[in-house]
Amino acid sequence: MRKKLIDLLNKEFQLYGIDEFTYPIFYNLRIGLRFELGMEIIEDEDEYINESVRRACNIFNDVFAADDDILLVIDTTPDKELKQKLLNAIMQRVRIKLNDKKLNKASNKCDTYFYRYIYFLKGRNFPSTSIFKRIAQSDFGKGKNYCNSVYIFNLRINVLFHMYDDRGIDLIAADKDILKPFYKKLNHMLLDYDRTRMSNLFEN
Question: How many domains would you assign to the chain?
């Protein structure tokens, strides 16, 4: 199972012409959408986080169907809490230690190594609210930092879904025709700062 999961991840990397995650993903890959999650007009911290999670779940539900095969990748330092609380609903796991050079290229963290967890599951089994809430809370010092650590691949349509923190989501594909329906349907949620770039790509 371990080799199969790694092979699946490498196959996805090949589709995007990369050999590792490079931040920010939206600016380092040619075809993508960037969505805004954080609503600055909301002053209450808990309300802000809940709204960010709600918007993330809405986008996820538009991109993933219940029967879709998902490859979930989480890069993190070893943490007992990760295994016990965050991903206890996910059954398949593989752990890989990466050397310093690979680590720095992949995540820009200063730890000597990190663990890569890879899971294969169905869309219906993905704990979206739990995972997105952990990511959204990271910038507020609530629990472990999962910013820029969680990657969700839809293996049916070959799309990468990356909620980088409480502020937004990058949706990436190798073919712009795959993303065009989401560009049209979710246009009101696109990040205004990058709207011109996305309009030039999907309307020409």
Answer: 1
